[in-house]
Each structure stands twice: as structure tokens, then as C-alpha cells.
Amino acid sequence: MRSTIAVIFACVVFLAGAVPAAPKDTERDFVDQFIKRTEKKHVRKLSWISGSFTFNRISESNDYNRFAAYESDHFQNTNLSSLGNAGAFGLDLGIVFSERFAWSVGGEYWLKLGESKSGSFAYDPPDAGSSTVDDFKSEIKVLGLTTGLQYYVMGHPSMTEQLEQLAVRVGGGIGYYQATWNLWSAYENFNLSTSLPADTSIAFKGSSPGYSLNLGADYPLSWMGLAVGADVSYFHLNFGNIAWYNASDEQIVASYDGTADGRVELNLSGVRAKVELKRFFSW
């Protein structure tokens, strides 16, 4: 009898010690499976940040150049230069989101276009008396926010690794741009509502979308994930709404012939060449 009780007691003790071990193993397995699933779900992505300089060759056939020629005829001892070249600095952030496609967003800051001169210049506008201009200037400032899509036609980087060879790409972009145009204070503005000159001169402002089509290439420098990029593109940007409004909400514009038909549209379209330094990184 005593031996039977001892056997039963030993079995109970054994079972009591064995039961808690099962949940521990199950819990450990569950954690291991969770870690493996998490590692599978997290796929490293290749991105880049870049700084660039863009050289813009503005088309010579534009309203501003007509305006410059027209106004130069009303100055006796100076001329207003035409627009030809423009530079811009840019900053972009991009990501390779599929095997051959990449997407980027960024911004542009254009170097000041136009000119300013010190001295006194005789000004004789057609609908006002002669005057002396001491603040001769015609300066344009442009800012833009951009986004673009690139397709790698050869040498594309992988989605998880850095660029390792020459990559050639084609793409396009779109942006939102704002322009401010400041002229000398005695400039004879044109009132579209009354078809009469406006005495006061205030900064003209406008906004416009910009579009580009480009061909480019990236070449790795084999140091800190850096690469140099180069692009050639055609860029369309036309501020057709460049103007200011007076207290009566009348639209005041610049004109290249003193009429409403000669309203100046600030067209900065042309061919661009861009050089950029890229820093690739994965996360």
C-alpha cells in the first residue's frame, strides 16, 4: 500500500514539473516566428538626396526681350538688356520604388535674372513727361517646388543596394513656380481695365506650372555612396498672369508696345543642363 502511494506521489510530482515546460517552448517558438516574419516584411529601400546646379538657356523669342527693346528706345543714355541665360540651385530627395522606376521631390531657387544699374538715366515714356531714373532696375526672382519620375533604361540600381555602374535614365517632371518682377519706380505701367498708363509701379507677381522632359545619367564615385549626375532637358515655364492689382482691383501689367495686345508674358522656357551630386542610402 505504501509503495503504491509512493508511486502515485512520484507521478504527480513529475507531471507538475513537466507541464510548465510546454508553454515556455511554445512562447519561445512564437517569438522566433514573429521575428522571422518581421524580417521578411521589412524590405530595404534605396533613396538619395542631391544638390544641383541648372543652367537655363532661355529662348530668345519671348515677350521680355520685346519689352527690353521697346523700353530701351525711351532711355537716352542706357539700354535694357534681353534675357538669355539663367542659373538655378536645387535640392531633391528621391526613392527607387521599383526595379527601374524612381520618384523624386525637390525645390529650385533661381539666381536673380535681369539687371540693375547705378546712376541717373533720362527716361522719356510715350504717355508721360520726361524724367530722371535713379533706381534703374529690371529684376526677376523665381522659386519652384518640383516632382519627377525617372525610368532607368540601362544600369539601373537595385531597390536595396547602392548604384554600382553607369545608369542611363529618361523622365519627366512638373513643378509649381512663383515669380516676382521689380521695375524702376517711374515705369509707365498699363491698366488693362482702362487701357491707360498707371503711374505707380509695384512688383509684378505671377505663378505657373512648369514641365520638363529629360535625358540623364548617374555615375557612382565609389565613396560614401556618392554619385555624379547630369541631365539635358527641355523646360516649359510661362508666367502668363504676371501682374499686380490696384486699390480698385484693376489688373496692371507691363506692355512691350503700350497696348493690351502687347501684354508681357514672362516666358522662361528653353533648354536646360543640370549637374548634381547625389548621396545614395538605403533604409
Q: Could you characterize what this model shows?
A:
This protein has two domains: 1-42; 46-282, Porin (Beta Barrel), CATH 2.40.160. The strands form three sheets. Strands 1-2-3-7-8-11-12-16 form an eight-stranded antiparallel barrel. The chain is built from three helices and 16 strands. Strand 2 and strand 3 (101-110) form a beta hairpin. It has helices at 2-18, 21-41, 63-72, and strands spanning 46-58, 85-96, 101-110, 113-116, 121-123, 131-133, 137-154, 167-183, 189-191, 196-198, 204-220, 226-239, 244-245, 251-253, 266-267, 270-282. Residues 4-16 and 18-22 have low confidence and may be disordered. The longest helix has 21 residues, at 21-41. Helices cover 17% and strands 48% of the residues. The chain is α+β, with helices and mostly antiparallel strands.
Strand-helix topology:
Blueprint: H1 2-18, H2 21-41, E1 46-58, H3 63-72, E2 85-96, E3 101-110, E4 113-116, E5 121-123, E6 131-133, E7 137-154, E8 167-183, E9 189-191, E10 196-198, E11 204-220, E12 226-239, E13 244-245, E14 251-253, E15 266-267, E16 270-282
Antiparallel strand pairs: 1-2, 1-16, 2-3, 3-7, 4-7, 5-6, 7-8, 8-11, 9-10, 9-14, 11-12, 12-15, 12-16, 13-14
Question: Notable features of this structure?
Answer:
single chain; 283 residues; alpha+beta; Porin; eight-stranded antiparallel barrel; four-stranded antiparallel β-sheet; 3 helices; 16 strands
